[in-house]
Amino acid sequence: MQRDPNRFWNPHLAGVALGTVLGVTFLVMGGGLGASGGSLRMGVAVLSAVAPEHVAATPPLARSAAAEHPQWLVYELFGVILGGLVAAYTAGRLKREVLKGPRISTGSRLALALLGGVLMGVAAKISRGCASGQALTGGALLSVGSWVFFLSFFAGGYGAAWFVRRQWR
Amino acid sequence: MTFPLFPSHELGLAFAVLSGFGFGFVLERSGFGRAQKLVGQFYGYDMSVFKVMFTAVVTAMLIVAVASVAGLTDFKLVADYATSQTLLVPFVVGGIGVGAGFVISGYCPGTSYVAMASGKLDGLVTVLGTIVGQVIWSELEWRPGFSTFHDATNVGNFYLWELLHLPARAGPPILAAAVVAMAAACFLIADRVEKALGANADPFARGIPGGRPRRWVLTGLAATCAAGLAGLLLPTGTQAGVRQVASVSAPELAQRAFDAPWRIRVVDVRPREACTARRVPGAECAPQAELAKLRLAEADPSRLLVVVGERQEAPPAVEAYRGKLAVLRGGWSAWEEYALAPPRPPAPGAPAAEVEAYRIRAGIQSALTGMKAAPPPPPPSAAPAGGARKGGGGCSG
């Protein structure tokens, strides 16, 4: 079969595959998937090496360091990286590059990526989860808060899109 | 009830890598390692984010809902474990923030890991930014002023079927059917928008129409919904989720705890501090969040499991237990009143049964509060034969 880096799965079949992974995780672990909780745990690991007393004195950091679930999420993220790597390699999409529109410099693009990342990190901590932890996991289990998050997420995206349009096109 | 399996710590971590692999692989193959394809959602030329997420949400929902109707698991139990509490204001603010951050960075936290893995430097930078942002808010959220906002409007675990006043058992499959119908309509609109706005978009970042696979997928999801709803009509055999829980009174529990402690297992679900301070003899302290660790589903079902809570309640997690289950009637306060407060001596000339009850209760109280001897009972009007033997409840010495 010809490898075409611009060929992707049909979104609905991909959705069924993703939903199956999530549903099986619910049935096995009694928990869902997430990306922000594991990110925090990694940050805490770095901080613990530099300033262990500070981590112990800051309750949210100490909780992340002590609880079991963040550790599980770090292992899960390790799997995500592995899965992404294998999928990208086998599809011919493994390539070192910066993705951006034609009208923006690489430096500006990376600065915006950092800014957006920090904003998402803060916001996902406020909402106790990001698009994977709240919208997917909580949405599938019909949590009211997750559906509130889901709608606010799309509102925030559409609201900000106009301001950064030059980044993409 | 078979699920959740709650594997051991090590097996759980191995499974974490496995499910993460599936998650990452599917995200990459959906094109979610590519920022232009992701943000297409917000410029209207590629609605893949919405299509993939919505299909995934419905699929996972149906897997748990159908398993729940079949009696293999309990939807609310899984939801209580896997979802966070609902905090309305922080979730609106956080949702808007994650949405805005998504279109600025080009990724959401999950997809940034996939982009990083496929060599995209902007993905790597987003990952680092997310980690920094998480730490920044962790530094702030508990401080005065911030915590008022961070913990505002907490309505606890709250589900759509509760919002709509649907029964807990029928709610999830009914809502799943409604979401499938809604999804089908939204997908058609998404296709229209893509067609209208995608005409002059980068041809590599254009949406993929649902096409024939979508018809199969929607048909399959609708059929699963129908099966779930039909399952609700079946009478017994699938009632695992709605087990009636018996109750046991404080005197009964005391008698069992002293006379035959090997026949019962007492689980105290109050907060750990309260349980450590004072508890029913032999009780295990297991705050609700830690109940999973007891692995009740695999526990020896031959004993009567007695749940002691603040109130008379059985958290859904204990329903995984396969043996007999009872809750302490009146909760901890009933126990406190019966076993820990000094009993009032019966009036002189009280019937023998009342004196006997007093003896037992005084014995329990002295054994549990460390009093050397209970106040002496009044001279019995008619001494019951062998009554003194039970005075200490067998364990007090």
Order of helices and strands of chain B: HHHHHHHHHHHEHEHEEEHH
Binned, the helix content of chain A reads over 70%
How far apart the termini of chain B lie comes to: 42 Å
SSE string of chain A, helices as H and strands as E: HHHHHHHH
Q: pLDDT average of chain B, as an integer? A: 84
> What overall form of chain A do the CA principal axes indicate?
globular
* Multimerization state: heterodimer
Q: How many helices of chain B in DSSP terms?
A: 15
Give a quick account of the main beta sheet of chain A: strands, pairing sense, barrel closure: none
Mean pLDDT of chain A: 93
Radius of gyration of chain B: 29 Å
Distance between the termini of chain A: 32 Å
Low-pLDDT stretches of chain A are: none
Number of distinct beta strands of chain A: 0
Largest interface: A-B, 126 and 142 residues
- Content-based structural category of chain A: mainly alpha
How does the overall form of chain B come out from the CA principal axes?
elongated
How many DSSP helices of chain A? 8
Low-confidence stretches of chain B: 236-242, 390-394
Q: Helix amount of chain B, in percent?
A: 40-55%
Structural class of chain B: mainly alpha
